[in-house]
Amino acid sequence: MRAVYEDSSHIKSILIALARLVDEASIKFGKEGIELVAMDRAHISLIKLKIPKEGFKEYEIEEEINFGFNTQFLMKVISSARRNETIEFSAEDPSIVFIRIVGSIMKEFKINNIDISQPDIPELNLQFDVNALVNSSAFKKAVDQISSVSDEIDFSADENGIKLSTKSETNVEVELTKDMGAVSELELTKPTSSTYSSEYLSDILVLTNLSGNTRLFFGEQKPLQLQFDMENGGNVVYLLAPQMG
């Protein structure tokens, strides 16, 4: 098995988000690309990663390998990676995976492949009230502003755009609209609102580094789904359960 990814900063951002949610995870290196599914410790959020083999600079997989790892440890291994460096995963023996970060110098790490049981996650068929494409930078700033003063963020949408606001005594509202350039697409079946944990959203905002735009889905008392589509055809999907009551 050998897979070379050209922009190691993508892998770094994904691992930072993953390490904030779970202690252990497993990447499946399959014939058509890599996949990862992980559920957070409290079972209220879910992260899914897919990168097709075409998204790699080189991709050679003879037999499917599941690479299980401690997220904190692997994040430390890759913490020194820079945007202009490539990252290579390779294995001759499935029990050991080598990671090489190649730039002006080459750093090599030998990682034990640990057995991780895959989460049993039923297939979700969610019908959302809102489907919007928002500027990733504007979305990140909005969540940062509100999470600094509130444990919850209220998402609401109408034909004018999307509004993020506090659920605390400190009143903060941030509007994302087409007129402001923060929303490029907006489809909704009805005006709606729902509330989510600001802490969980803050934990994964590093994923906005993957794409200039974030696809956002939500509905009344339905999960929030964020989708980050990378230029190479890969994507990360994050699902967060609503705050009830």
Strand share of the residues?
35-45%
Report how far apart the termini are: 49 Å
* CATH-derived topology of the largest domain: Proliferating Cell Nuclear Antigen
**Secondary structure category:** alpha+beta
Strand order in the largest sheet = 6-2-3-4-18-17-16-10-14
Number of structurally distinct domains: 2
Radius of gyration, in Å, reads 19 Å
What is the CATH domain class of the largest domain? Alpha Beta
- What's the pLDDT, averaged over the residues? 93
User: What low-confidence regions span 5 or more consecutive residues with pLDDT below 50?
Assistant: none
Topology order in helix (H) and strand (E) letters = EHEEEEEHEEEEHEEEEEHEEE
CATH architecture title of the largest domain: Box
What does the largest sheet look like? 9 strands, antiparallel
What does this protein look like?
This protein has 245 residues and is an alpha+beta fold. It folds into 2 domains: 2-37 and 50-112, Proliferating Cell Nuclear Antigen, CATH 3.70.10.10; 130-240, Proliferating Cell Nuclear Antigen (Box), CATH 3.70.10. It is 16% helix and 44% strand. It contains 4 helices and 18 strands. The protein has helices spanning 8-21, 71-78, 136-147, 198-203, and strands at 2-5, 24-30, 33-39, 45-52, 58-60, 65-70, 86-90, 96-102, 106-112, 130-135, 152-158, 161-166, 173-177, 183-188, 192-197, 213-218, 224-229, 235-240. It has a 9-stranded antiparallel beta sheet with strand order 6-2-3-4-18-17-16-10-14. A 5-stranded antiparallel beta sheet has the order 5-1-7-8-9, with no helix packed on it. The chain has a 4-stranded antiparallel beta sheet with strand order 13-12-11-15. β11 (152-158) and β12 (161-166) form a beta hairpin. α1 runs antiparallel to α2. The model has no long low-confidence stretch (mean pLDDT 93).
